[in-house]
Amino acid sequence: MKKTIRRPSSIPLYGAAAVWLVWCLFLPLYRLWHFAALLVLTVGAFFGLRALFPGTTEEIEVEEPAPAPVTTGDPERDKLLEEGQRAVAELTRLRGTIPDPTVQSRVDELADLTDKIFKDIVDDPKDVPQVKRFASYYLPTTMKLLNAYDRMSGEGAGENVSGTLRRIEDILDTTVQAYRKQYDALFANEALDIETDITVLESMLKREGLSGGDFKI
Asked: Is pLDDT larger for residue 180 or for residue 59?
């Protein structure tokens, strides 16, 4: 993350000091109006020089504060969340070193979906087995392919290298779609619970005569 820093010029301070020095050497300073005039000249010199010499600005790189780790109080889920945070950090690193913009975009999507998949277990512990399966099968292979792509991107454009890079690029679209389906599948239980609640509510309203044309006052 870049931060802009303004470095003011020291010339206005030197100019204000020079006004005092010149006045004290050559002009009287024992009446009230002497001090008032000196103050006006000093302020005028300072702001006039600051307008002429505003200073410089520069951008510096500063480290973004690390996000606070998400915890649940359950050791199993917390361990899985830590694994997810490491995976997202590695995907973010790879995104910064892979030169191809299209692949960068795919890695961004994979990092976002990975983060959402792991964080799902914070609110829904029942999804732990599915997320474990995702972490054991899909994620390691994805990481292996992306690391290979990152490493081979700096190699010469030989036939083997070019062919392998194209194969990885082709599979990334399918991988993104698979990650989306994995994330959507985590809501199957919640969708079923909501559907059950809706059915129960509809039955209650119908029994009480509060639905549709059966509504009675």
From this structure: 180
Structural domains of the chain, count: 2
**99 and 153 Cβ atoms separated by less than 8 Å:** yes
Please count the other Cβ atoms lying within 10 Å of the Cβ belonging to residue 55.
12
Angle at 114 between CA 109 and CA 117, to 5 degrees: 125
Higher pLDDT, 114 or 32: 114
How many other CB atoms are found less than 10 A from the CB of residue 28? 8
Residues 101-153: tens digit of each pLDDT: 999 999 999 999 999 999 999 988 888 999 999 999 889 999 999 999 998 88
Domain identity same for 12 and 90:
no
Query: What is this structure's pTM?
Result: 0.59
Q: Is residue 88 one of the residues assigned to a domain?
A: yes
Q: Nearest-5° angle of CA 136, CA 170, CA 176?
A: 45
Whether 169 maps to a domain, the answer reads yes
Cβ within 8 Å of residue 83, ≥6 positions away: 118, 135
Across 187-191, average pLDDT = 69
Cα Rg of the chain (Å, integer)? 33
Residues 153/98, Cβ–Cβ less than 8 Å: yes
Q: Which helix (H) or strand (E) holds 2?
A: strand 2-7
Final residue belonging to a domain, choices 61, 90, 108: 61
99 with 176, same domain?
Answer: yes
CB neighbours (10 Å) of residue 175? 19
| Span between the terminal Cα atoms of the chain, in Å | 63
